[in-house]
Amino acid sequence: MALDWLYFHRQFLPFRRCGTRQGESRVGIGIWSVRMTRAVPPDPEKIIHERARLRILVYLASSPETEVGFPVLKQDLDMSAGNLSIQLKTLEEAGYIKLTKSFKGRKPYTGIRLSAQGEGALNRYLDEMESMLNAVREKNPGQAKE
């Protein structure tokens, strides 16, 4: 078997891949071996639960316009352009939003829309959060909302 190289703890180490199960291999470094598996797709709940992405989805769902421009979203959510573009990329890869790029006059324009998949995921997420809140409120009925 040929040796590969693994960057580990600031150094390159030789290792051999072995294992026969699909999607899994064992990596041997010297006398140690580590089981490696293929990356698991991200949990949709984790995608939505991150604060910035949740704010984006809620803003798009509650917006009277079907499409919101990047500068408007950036200003209203008070986010930097870099952070907003990274969060939008994550949401687009998950299929929760649709980005349209065009020109308005001579200026580039990026429009952002909530997709049907994104709307469904947001509704499921909000329902799950609501059920958890209700469970806590039922357990502690004496505490009033403030």
UniProtKB/TrEMBL annotation:
Domain Winged helix DNA-binding per the UniProt entry, residue ranges: 53-132
Spans traversing the lipid bilayer: none
Pfam families in alphabetical order: HTH_34 (PF13601)
Gene3D superfamilies found in the cross-reference section: Winged helix-like DNA-binding domain superfamily/Winged helix DNA-binding domain
InterPro entries: WH-like_DNA-bd_sf, WH_DNA-bd_dom, WH_DNA-bd_sf
PANTHER family: BSL7504 PROTEIN (PTHR37318)
Name of the protein this chain belongs to: Winged helix DNA-binding domain-containing protein
